[in-house]
Amino acid sequence: MNRRVDDPQAAIPAWEPLSPEVLADQLGTYDRQRIACALARSPRGVTLFRHADVVAAAHDPQTFSSAVSARRAVPNGMDPPEHAPWRALVDSFFAPAQIAALEPRVRAIADALVAALPRGTVVDAVAEIGRPFAVRAQTAWLGWQGIEDELLAWMAENHAATRSGDTARSAAVAAAFDEIIRRQLRRRRTPDQATSDDPTTALLTATLDGQPLSEADIVSILRNWTAGDLASMAAALGVVAWFLATHQDVQQALRDRPQDLALAIDEMLRIDDPFLVNRRVTTHAVRIGEHELAAGDRVYLNWTSANRDEAVFGDPGAYRPEQNAPHNLVYGTGIHACPGRPLATMELVVAVEALLKATALIDPAPGASPERETYPLGGWRRVPVRLR
């Protein structure tokens, strides 16, 4: 990317990412768009489809700012230099020792969930595995036990509000989630809860530059850890379950070598990345290929498309975990690469390992078809499998 733009702007191709045709086949559309053009414009902004452009933008926060929302978002909505100390604070909650200490509790959750699933009949890997596991694992980590059903109901309403396109409904759902968080904070401030050993309590005593965090910033951090991550974890498990069911050679190889699960799961999610886009806004004019973006343009980094770029991966659907790992963008790249990657990786490995240990075979449920998810998520909305 060049910082100075000296020649006229080439017309950026138009597209509509929320049209019924695109929503019916997001993955196929992104593949076709990426081959046809590096970027496309809609009323929502400009989408980047190719790996090189997405990576370059993610590594250039001076040009592609993350300050895209009126709501304060710690630290993912921050640019340098403000971003660095907040990111260091957030990273401290995902240290190896903390993830290792949490793992036995997450493993117990996964084992109990899988043990209770029926055998030989249809199981929806998203609704019956992904969502309950995501909620139970997250509440165990944050110390929010007892509100699992409330979080599941909120996830359903959040999806419905997003799909409706009703901004007032989405704002109400977001406010409802903030109240869930504030209720947890109020609990921690009572004498009998003040000594709880969990990240929620730790945030109440954390400091930045010697100052305690404001409640608004604590809410923002916890919102970032939960509101999106619950849906992301459920979607990721749906993708992995369907891949295993439809690639039984890979399934058997991972039964024989479960130590390969982390790399394998990353590759399955590269092939069908359910984490579609992140937003940026340009701070000045910038050229991408033959096209010029103006200062203030909204830009969408399309991770799902970039993760299938033929120029980097060859056949985007080919399963090559070791070969493709250096270029995999499932957890993003640059200063805003997902800080929760250690936690997410541990949870996914533990959940899939529990599935493989408790079954002899996972296969597609006969007579039932999976259903694709739609924006703002990719992957699958419904994944009917049979556990045997």
UniProtKB/TrEMBL annotation:
Q: Which GO terms describe its molecular function?
A: heme binding; iron ion binding; monooxygenase activity; oxidoreductase activity, acting on paired donors, with incorporation or reduction of molecular oxygen
Q: Alphabetically list the UniProt keywords.
A: Monooxygenase, Oxidoreductase
Q: Which InterPro entries match?
A: Cyt_P450, Cyt_P450_sf
Q: Which domain of life is it from?
A: Bacteria
Question: Family, per the entry?
Answer: Belongs to the cytochrome P450 family.
- Write down what this protein is called: Linalool 8-monooxygenase
Native source species: Hydrogenophaga pseudoflava
